[in-house]
Amino acid sequence: MVSIRQARMEDLFQMQHCNLTCLPENYQMKYYFYHILSWPQLLHVAEDSKKRIVGYVLAKMEEDAPEVHGHITSLAVFRSHRKMGLAAKLMTAAQEAMQESFAAEYVSLHVRKSNRAAFALYSSSLGFKIHDIEAQYYADSEDAYDMRKYFPNAKNKSKGASEDDAPASRFKELTMSDGVVESSKQSNPIEGEHVVD
């Protein structure tokens, strides 16, 4: 049995191990400390019955933006624990914390255009919409989808905005064949990766 819970300081080394095992772009330990000290409500782990961390979500609030919103920095689940819905549960836990603790209007993330599994999770299962495409977002020059999910009752939504407005509507013709998975910003090489089940 695997449970989802808020991450604690003592989980950080296992979270980093999961990141190193699952993802090509990795973080120094100070980045995990920065997240847990700044936004402890937003970090969640999937823990098995033997108290091992088998997945995590690393999230933050974007502080320099005009709208209050969260950002998914990194999401990973060990291959042995995929196809159990853990990635969706971790994402849901982080999103709920963003709304409850910070009154976030939406959550954003970046994902590689080639990562079809993550794109399917975000768009089909979790309700994210493409906001924009960021050319050469990754260190290897791959483009990223900038995806967003507006929360119900958010201020922006009450002003008449919707996820079908503005730049998102330009991308309705995109299909699943356009794919998606990891995320890491060239200008900020410690921004996230996404591995899903």
How would you sum up the major sheet?
A: 7 strands, mixed
Q: What Rg, in angstroms, do the CA atoms define?
A: 16 Å
Structural class designation:
alpha+beta
User: Mean pLDDT score, rounded?
Assistant: 82
Strand content: 15-25%
State the total count of DSSP E strands: 7
Strand order of the largest sheet: 1-2-3-4-5-7-6
* CA(first)-CA(last) distance: 16 Å
Structural commentary:
The structure is a single chain. This protein has 197 residues and is α+β, with helices and mostly antiparallel strands. It contains six helices and seven strands, in the order βααβββαβαββαα. It has helices at 12-22, 29-38, 86-102, 116-125, 155-158, 166-169, and strands spanning 3-6, 44-47, 53-62, 69-77, 106-112, 129-134, 144-150. Strands 1-2-3-4-5-7-6 form a seven-stranded mixed beta sheet, with helices on both faces. Strand 4, helix 3 (86-102) and strand 5 (106-112) form a beta-alpha-beta unit. The radius of gyration is 16 Å and the shape is globular. Residues 157-190 have low confidence and may be disordered.
